[in-house]
Specification:
Elements lengths: L4 E2 L4 H11 L1 E4 L5 H19 L8 E3 L3 E7 L9 H7 L2 H11 L4 E13 L20 E6 L10 E4 L3 H10 L20 E2 L7 E5 L3 E4 L7 E11 L8 H6 L5
Parallel strand pairs: 1-2
Antiparallel strand pairs: 2-9, 3-4, 4-5, 5-11, 6-9, 6-11, 7-8, 7-10
Helix pairs in contact: 1-4
This protein binds fe (ii) ion.
Fe (ii) ion binds next to loops.
Length: 248
């Protein structure tokens, strides 16, 4: 079947879809109480950071969103029992190792709790324009609210990852020279990812992607985890890491 959508988390099927499409979508992955528990963790963190009362190290970006970055050691079973159970699960770890074809993965070492808010006008910069990430990353991307046209859905160009991968690899040793913004004419066939709360996306950041614009007082709440090859097994530098902190 020619689709990137699944109704269960199956490592082999997701791995296959990632190779073919650059993304896999798992519908109804988190439902009921567990979804609500994650939403409570998300909202509590956002409120604490907003009031400057979150006591642990974190970084925040606030360009039309409140994007809070936490390192894995902060997201532990005491502080974030539900986030840690999900994002550090055996299932996610198995998929990560399977996809990168090695056990040397930097597995969800950073999590982002991101609330995109309404923007007054279209923003012509990252992450709102089509791009691929300079730092090759497998992202676990969970919608916490229903996402329709007004909620600024994640948008992707299916199957674009192979072409972008070739380009990225040409610049592996000089990532600061790599232009990772994608020509809009190539993105005519973009797919907005409308989906219900609790939908999980797993995508390879070589796929062309962007954040949709949030409209009419809506919002989009997402928790995402970033997995990469372990340092030492990949090229890269500090500049490129910074460039990719806050992109979708
Ligand atoms: Fe990105």
């Amino acid at each position: 079947m020619d689709t990137y959508k699944l109704d269960e988390f199956n490592v082999e099927k997701i791995n296959s879809m990632l190779s073919r499409f650059g993304i896999a979508q798992v519908d109804n992955y988190i439902v009921g109480h567990e979804l609500n528990n994650l939403l409570v963790e998300f909202d509590n963190l956002q409120a604490l950071v907003q009031q400057d009362e979150f006591e642990f190290p974190h970084q925040v970006d606030e360009i039309c969103c409140a994007n809070i970055r936490l390192e894995k050691k902060i997201v532990n079973t005491n502080n974030f029992p539900h986030s840690s159970a999900l994002f550090f699960s055996e299932a996610f770890e198995n998929l990560s190792k399977r996809y990168f074809k090695t056990s040397s993965v930097s597995f969800n070492e950073e999590l982002f709790y991101c609330k995109h808010n309404e923007s007054d006008q279209r923003i012509n910069s990252l992450p709102y324009i089509f791009h691929f990430d300079k730092m090759h990353t497998l992202k676990y991307f969970l919608y916490l609210n229903d996402v329709g046209e007004e909620n600024g859905p994640l948008e992707v160009v299916l199957r674009s990852h192979k072409q972008n991968c070739r380009l990225r690899k040409k610049y592996l040793r000089n990532l600061q020279d790599l232009d990772n913004v994608v020509d809009p004419s190539i993105c005519a066939e973009n797919t907005p990812l409308y989906a219900l709360a609790g939908t999980l996306f797993v995508f390879d950041t070589d796929i062309s992607h962007r954040a949709g614009h949030v409209m009419n007082g809506s919002y989009r709440k997402v928790i995402r985890g970033h997995t990469r090859l372990s340092s030492g097994s990949k090229p890269g530098n500090f500049l490129s890491r910074i460039n990719n902190y806050f992109t979708n």
